[in-house]
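Sample pair:
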Amino acid sequence: MRRVRLSRRHVIACATVVLATAVAVPAGASAFGTQEQVEHAVKGGPAKNVILLIGDGMGDSEITLARDYTVGAAGRLNMDRLPMTGAYTTYSVDEKGKPDYVTDSAASGSGWATGHKTVNGRISKTPGTNKALPTILELAQKNGYATGSVTTAELTDATPAVLASHATDRSCQGPADMAKCAVDTIGKGGPGSIAEQSVNHKVDVLLGGGKQRFDQKITEGRYKGMTVLQQASKLGYQVVTDAKGLKGVKSVKGGKPVLGLFAPGNVPVEWTGKPAAVGGTDPQRCTTSNSKRPAGTPALDEQAKKAIALLEDKQRARSSKGHGGKGSDKGFFLQIEGASIDKQDHAADPCGQIGETAAFDRAVKVARDYAAKHPDTLVVTTADHGHSSQIVPLEANPPGLSSTLVTNEGSRLKVNYSTNTPGQSQEHTGTEVRIAAQGPQAFRVLGVTDQTDLFRTIRTALRLR
């Protein structure tokens, strides 16, 4: 049989025909946008901006649960409307490079941040030799792009950490947390804790929780005796701690980056309810407020919108100064993480989990709204790994923890958590997870790819050397 080789142009043309046909389905039943959006999504060429949205632990079950509860079984979330959808594999490796089939957030994040697999617990370093690997954010900075990271976790947690730090172990978040990272200490010639590295990188916008790490005192090196927060101020950071302060930041012009720290630890979740229990719970509606969430805590979509505005303003100012007022093709790279989907999955708390997925989905809308006005923006939405929640029949009596919810449609839904013994933290799963995209190079997510391929997609889109 004669083998036919197709160019990328032919592949894109075929995808355009298939997807353009798909959008002929009535709007209520279609996950796609307009035909124009679909056709643009399969175009190659460079992107000016990349917005990467990570739903931590947001596997297909977590997406389906949030959809069923909030918009109904036949409804569609914002993340469902991205025109290009595929799946990617998430496994990590051991120190010899053999597959470890269930990843943690450190190894999985390092995969898309560096394009390389590593061991669980490691932050953007090689699995065997423990050497630092260049990250996508570092390459973006080197190539003149503005950069940002937004999260509902501590800014030193694994997913934001993989972008702007290199650590032997994810636990080495602040100067007082270096027990597992002896070779990374400043005294040993290393870069220091994740918090120190994050501000040393002078990322233009850093927004999230984890103020407790930045309040720790530095014990070695140039900034010895200061807290990491004082180090950040010394490096020119504008520091804000609530929504009012964030709103008041006008720009990052003049090289003054922004550090927002909105909680001592993880940012408190938006929704509450009864956690799953052995034998199940009585049917419940989730409470869409949380008394433990301080007033003035900015929502994830608010942070996302502000981060985009600040990064865009930074590049506009740079363009005006460096190019005689002419536009620049260098935009920004921004990662946005909905972190506590995972954390509430670990706690077998379906209401907390659904609320965080809904909050993440609003951030997806912010990114898509921006891309609608700036079609040279690649938007990617995905997860780092699968997790434990499963939708099961109402008559099922699972051996683990379960809860029955009453959805917005008035129907009952049972969710089960059985990836660990009741009373223990529920575990990740090794399943592939969704990846969806729109904009330049979005076609690269189609089919089944690997987590490390996302690094190459972003690098290609931004033409990073």
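The domain at 46-462 is CATH 3.40.720.10 (Alkaline Phosphatase, subunit A).
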